[in-house]
Write a structure and sequence with these properties.
Blueprint lengths: L1 H33 L3 E13 L2 E14 L3 E10 L4 E6 L6 E6 L1 E16 L2 E15 L1
Antiparallel strand pairs: 1-2, 2-3, 3-6, 4-5, 6-7
């Protein structure tokens, strides 16, 4: 009998838990937006790969911090790595090969929810969307 009740009970707990977490999360967000925001400025870097080569970006972000829980920001990122690719120039005679350097510029807008903040650790969920351009 105990084994038969265990699975439905666990299922009921799993279905009920997200609703309680959602309510607490929304209350935290509402309370944070009632506080006076502070100005936020960040220097930021990202590492990635382009054509099997390391690609490092450097960026600046500025925005508002609400109660050390919600951060809203805009930024600018630029590729700082030298990623070079040979390009054939066919407009000249005879055709020539030149080294082209990858260039990238990116402008993100983001919001971040900090759910744990005790020195020296901070855990957050960032959401960012942006537009940019990259070319050789």
């Amino acid at each position: 009998m105990r084994n038969r009740l265990r699975i439905p009970l666990l299922l009921l707990i799993c279905l009920a838990t997200p609703h309680a977490v959602t309510a607490q999360w929304l209350d935290t967000v509402r309370t944070s937006f009632r506080e006076k925001p502070r100005f936020l400025f960040m220097l930021d870097t990202y590492n990635s790969f382009v054509s099997s080569k390391g690609a490092n970006t450097f960026g600046l972000r500025a925005g508002l911090d609400f109660n050390k829980r919600i951060r809203i920001s805009v930024g600018y990122y630029n590729l700082v790595s030298d990623i070079v690719k040979p390009k054939i120039v066919r407009d000249v005679f005879p055709p020539d090969t030149l080294n082209a350097r990858l260039d990238m510029h990116y402008f993100p807008v983001g919001i971040e929810y900090v759910f744990y903040n005790k020195y020296p650790w901070e855990l957050s969920v960032p959401f960012s969307i942006g537009a940019g351009k990259s070319y050789f």
